[in-house]
Structures are given as C-alpha cells and as structure tokens.
Design goal:
Blueprint (H helix, E strand, L loop, with lengths): L13 H12 L10 H36 L1 E4 L6 H7 L5 H8 L1 H4 L11 E4 L82 E4 L5 E3 L4 E8 L5 E7 L4 E7 L1 E2 L6 E2 L4 E4 L10 E7 L7 E2 L1 H7 L5
Antiparallel strand pairs: 1-2, 3-11, 4-10, 5-6, 5-9, 6-7, 7-11, 8-10, 11-12
Helix pairs in contact: 3-4
Amino acid sequence: MPAKGKHRRQRTNPITRGIVAAGTGGAALAIPLIGATGAHAAEQAAAPWVAHTAQAAAAPQTAKQAATAKTVTTYSVTAGDYLAKIAETQKVSGGWQKLYADNREAVGDNPSLIHPGLKLTIGAKAKAEAAPKKAAPKAAEPKKAEPKKAAPAPAKPAPKADTTANEPAAQSNASGYTAPVDGAATTTAYRAAGGSWSSGYHTGVDFAASSGTTVKAVGPGTVVSAGWAGSYGNEVVIKHDDGQYSQYAHLSSLSVSAGQSVGGGDQIGLSGSTGNSTGPHLHFEIRTGPSYGSDVDPLAYLREHGVSL
C-alpha cells in the first residue's frame, strides 16, 4: 500500500517515450505529442499558407479573365454609322473587315446594311485568334527507296482562261457617268410644288428603289460628307471633277466616308427610308455647292453627261 498522501507516479507510455526520444532528433516526429488543442493550433498556423497557395494558383486565371473582359466591348450602332467609321473610332485592328468578320452573324451577308440599335462586339475574337499552338514536330521517317520512274513527257501549256465572264459589267458610259440606281423609274419630279418641303418645292428627283438597293456615284469625284443629315436621313455628298455636287439621301447604310475618292458606278450606300421619308426610295440632287439651296435640274445634268434616262 502506498503511503497516505502520496500520489502514484503516472506510468509513461513507452510509445510516447519513443516519440519523445525521436522528437529530439527530428522535428517531423514531434507532431504526435501535440494534444487536441495543439493540433488545432497547428492547423490554424498552416491555414494561411494553404490559402496563400490557393490564391496564388487562382491568380493567373483571374488576371487572364480580367484582361479578356477589358479587351471585349459592345458597341451600339447609331444613325449615320457604317462599319469603316466604327472601326476607325473604336480603333479596331484590321479595320472594318475585321469588325465585319467578328460580327458576321449579327450583320448578315451585306456589310453595308447595318441599322441603328444593332449591337456589335469589339475585340470578340482577339483571344481566340491568338497565336495557335504549334504542333509537335513529327519524328523524321526514314526515306524509302523509290523505284526509278521514266521521265514524264513535257506538259502541254494550258489554254488561257476566258476571263471575260468574270469581269464586272460596265458601270458607266464613256464619260464616266451613270444613273444613281439601275433601271429605276423616277417618281417625284424636280421642282414639284407642295407643302411637304420647307422650300415649297422638291429640290431633287426621287428614284423608286426598295430598301437595300445599291446606290452608285453618278460620276468620278471626292466624297465631301457621309453621315446623318436631319430630314435627309443618311446622306452622301460628292464633289465631281466638273465642280458640281451630287447628293444621295434617305440611305439605309453608307459604304464611303468623307475624303474618299470614287469613280462613276462605285457603290456608295444602300437605299432606304431614313430621315423625313414616307417610304423607301432614293432622293437625288445636283447642286452647284455642297449645301442645301443650290440645286439644279438633276436629270438635265445626267443627260448632259451622256446618261440615258
């Protein structure tokens, strides 16, 4: 019997002793000596390292996503816009062709036919068109001995292809002038009186043309303006080599921009019903100056330049 008042010495677990002894030689084996509270503290101490590692692993993907988000924007088409203008103002690398290629599904088959409110994506395919991964080079295969072939007979020269079928149809007469739309009849005549016009009379002539009909420059010259013009809607004004100006109004879309040189028969836009218009048609004027109020008879001008109407 142990003496009263003395406590029994607690026996030391041999496994624990072994761990303690080993712990003096290597810190990795000291972990089993930590109790429940100590183990919890160790987990907490390790937590920041684990979190830091997870954040570091996720950081490159987050940065990549942020970079992609910054390069992709959405542009809403406004009145007077056309792809070349949008590509220039939005600094699209590759010009309007790249902008059209990226938005082909939204725009449709005709890049000239866009409308206000259409959403265009800028830089949508920048990441997709990044440098493609190079395929691993194939191991060189040993060349097989090929039987000797007889020398081939000299090839006969191929006959010259007839390219006349691929040549565009003549767009203008010998003077370089043409009608603004093909085969269209005139509707409202020049100088027709009425209260529909602020001047009290029609300052041009109207050609019947459904929306989307190709509108052409009537002669060679330089585009003075191309864009929105109030009651005229989308319009183009061209200064011709003879000093006169032609105007094309109510267009649904524009294919040219100010400062651009055009030839007779070149497409400058598509007909429509923008601005103060009762329906699709082309309003056409000839002017002695670039602005409203300097109009002259447009049909007489075209006839003087050899255009039959």
